[in-house]
Design brief:
single chain; alpha/beta; Aspartate Aminotransferase, domain 1; Aspartate Aminotransferase, domain 2; 2 domains; seven-stranded mixed sheet; four-stranded antiparallel sheet; 14 helices; 17 strands; globular
Length: 414
């Protein structure tokens, strides 16, 4: 077995685990080992309590009321823009648009920016390791405008081939869209370099940050991307809420994505005047509780420290990689030099769904399937993988449980 450094000594994972009530439950009579964090993370008491507090003490619609509860709810809701601005180092709260999640953020850009700026003969570049949410909206935009979709190829290790990317870039390139980190492979893409290369050809850059925000410190000004989008539920917040960051000048020039209440200044049957940023893109009553709880989640992460979490997760990644490599017939898919704490694997002679089913009986939750990345599975000529994805509260002991569970899979399938 590969020699490993001891786990970070200042990181109290047991104390952190006590903040997540679901981790104390059992599944099929076994202690829960939750290793499906790339799909969604569990929620700490700070987030759960904040949702409950809103509905028990503050429930009112935002922006529209002069009464006490509406003012309290509005202040709590709007304060999250400042939290997000600090978290990703945006320039202004005007650049923080609340959405239903990463998918809505990407679709918003594809519709509101893309329909206005992309035409027949233009090209859009994405990568071969994208989630379907960062493929389908751009396909739809190309179909609507006559533009062409170009694909950055990926190496056997799961790293984007930047030399090939450079060949794809041209004066026809209008937009480049890539994920900060791959949900299927864990590959962390060099998004700053990708952005610089696109900028040299006058293209804008959209970053799918769904797998970046839980594992990395995000600085959108340093990356210099034009848009960055993420979901709260990937970073210990609730489902159904998220953020689209966009450079102010671009957002100002874009038409609204949806029409309705709150995104207007005035309405007559002859003309509607749209609201200022960021409200122009926030039609209707939002997920108020979700946004407020997203702020609580980001505050919780900040209280532990992104760097501390990243160091702990990297230790788990190294330990799990070494342990899994000891297993005969197991092959890890995605061995990039820079990875988030995600390991995809196949087991010779065993379908991933069977792996997941047997592990579930041991109380171990992993993801099996194509991970909404079917073109990537085709690239590796496999139908699916098993995926273990780690978070701040996972432990080496849980990695050992995973390895023991895979041992039982091999016993069953000979």
């Amino acid at each position: 077995m590969t020699a490993l450094a001891p786990s970070p000594v200042m990181y109290d994972v047991e104390r952190i685990r006590r903040d997540f009530p679901i981790l104390s439950r059992s599944v099929h009579g076994k202690p829960l080992v939750y290793l499906d964090n790339a799909a969604t993370t569990q929620k700490p008491n700070a987030v759960i309590d904040r949702i409950v507090r809103y509905y028990r003490e503050e429930n009112a619609n935002v922006h529209r009321g002069v009464h006490y509860l509406s003012e309290i709810a509005t202040n709590a809701y709007e304060s999250v823009r400042t939290t997000v601005k600090k978290t990703i180092n945006a320039r202004s709260e005007k650049e923080i648009v609340f959405t239903g999640g990463t998918t809505e953020g990407i679709n918003l850009v594809a519709y509101a920016w893309g329909r206005k700026n992309v035409a027949a003969g233009d090209e859009i570049i994405i990568s071969a390791i994208e989630h379907h949410s960062d493929i389908v909206p751009w396909q739809m935009l190309c179909q609507a405008t006559g533009a062409t979709l170009r694909i950055i190829p990926v190496s056997d290790a799961g790293e984007l081939l930047l030399d090939e990317y450079a060949k794809l870039l041209s004066s026809r390139t209008k937009l480049v869209a890539v994920g900060h980190a791959s949900n299927a492979l864990g590959t962390i893409n060099p998004v700053k370099q990708i952005t610089e290369m696109a900028r040299a050809h006058g293209a804008i850059v959209v970053i799918d940050g769904a797998q970046g925000i839980p594992h990395l410190r995000i600085d959108v000004q340093d990356i210099d991307c034009d848009f960055y989008t993420f979901s709260a539920h990937k970073v210990y917040g609730p489902t159904g809420s998220g953020v689209l960051y966009g450079k102010e000048a671009l957002l100002e020039a874009m038409p609204p994505y949806e029409g309705g209440g709150d995104m207007i200044l005035s309405v007559s049957f002859e003309k509607t005047t749209y609201n200022a940023l960021p409200y122009k893109f926030e039609a209707g009553t939002p997920d108020i509780a979700g946004v407020i709880a997203m702020g609580a989640a980001l505050d919780y992460v900040a209280s532990i420290g992104v760097e501390n979490i990243a160091a702990h997760e990297h230790d788990l990644l190294l330990y799990a990689t070494a342990r899994l490599q000891e297993i005969d017939r197991l092959r890890i898919i995605g061995t990039a030099a820079h990875k988030a704490a995600v390991i995809s694997f196949v087991l010779e002679g065993v379908h991933p769904h069977d792996i997941g089913t047997i592990l579930d009986q041991e109380g171990i939750a992993i993801r099996t399937g194509h991970h909404c990345a079917q073109p990537l599975m085709l690239r590796y000529n496999i139908p699916a993988t098993g995926r273990a994805s780690f978070a701040m509260y996972n432990t080496r002991e849980e990695v050992d449980a995973l390895v023991a569970g895979i041992g039982k899979v091999l016993e069953v399938f000979g």
